[in-house]
Amino acid sequence: MSSGPGRLGAGPAATRRPPSYGEGAAAVALVATTAEVLAHPELDEDLLAPWERQRLAGIRVPARRDDVVAARLLLRLCASRVTGLPPRGVAPAQRCPGCGRDGHGRPYLPDHPGLGVSYSHADGLAAAVVGPGPVGIDVEPLTRRPGPVSVLRRLLPHDEVDAARAGPDPGPALLRLWVRREALFKAGTDGVRLTEWTDRGRAAVVALAGADGARRALSPAPAPSPAPTPPSGR
Ligand SMILES: [Zn+2]
Asked: Which UniProt keywords apply (predicted)?
């Protein structure tokens, strides 16, 4: 990445937070390329817990492994920004709502029960959010086209799928519908504000559930980046 490391959330607003938070505390959401995260000076793979590294060992595709590492590190950076602790001082855990076991399923911060956390990764992209109350985030490459429609109609509200398909640009519309649903699903509730945007510099579509106002903490996009060329370009 030609923008260099250190630009993630490097605004004056993203420095120290008081150690207490409650209603109205600031949330932090960050979107970055996997390469940006892995080059970030505050982050290193050795921040990951032994149980996380154990899970990584099962991922055979190096690029996918990098995406997972990046998302987990970005989550620590968000938690660090919100709590004022160093990234090494926050220890995310996961618990599965299905089987009740630790180590997979919904992420949370055992030492900060008032904060919601969520992360997402896709091809070369990572996103994470930490903030008061339920939060969810999803990132997908701008060029991704979810489908087939039969699957979408099973997972998403029929009327919304049909409306997206009937519009002038069904592919991107279905993608936005998809990331919004994913973010709400991760938040565990539909009763939160949903924001969705396109990060053109990173060729990413992002949806954020909850964490009102967190979008302003996003880092600026890297200036010169590979142009998002559609696969069927002229
Ligand atoms: Zn489970």
From this structure: Transferase
**pLDDT at 47 (0 to 100):** 97
Element at 205 (helix H, strand E): strand 204-209
Domains assigned to the chain:
27-217 (3.90.470.20)
The Å distance, Cα 102 to ligand 1 centre, comes to 8
Mean pLDDT score of the chain: 84
Q: What is the pLDDT of residues 6-64, one digit of tens each?
A: 345 433 344 444 445 544 568 999 999 999 999 999 999 999 999 999 999 999 999 99
CA of 217 to the centre of ligand 1 (A): 32
| 13 C-alpha to ligand 1 centroid (Å) | 38
Cβ–Cβ contacts within 10 Å for residue 230, how many? 10
Query: What 3-state DSSP class applies to 178?
Result: helix
ω into residue 168 within 30 of 0, thus cis?
no
- Expressed in angstroms and rounded, the spacing between residue 55 Cα and the centre of ligand 1 is 14
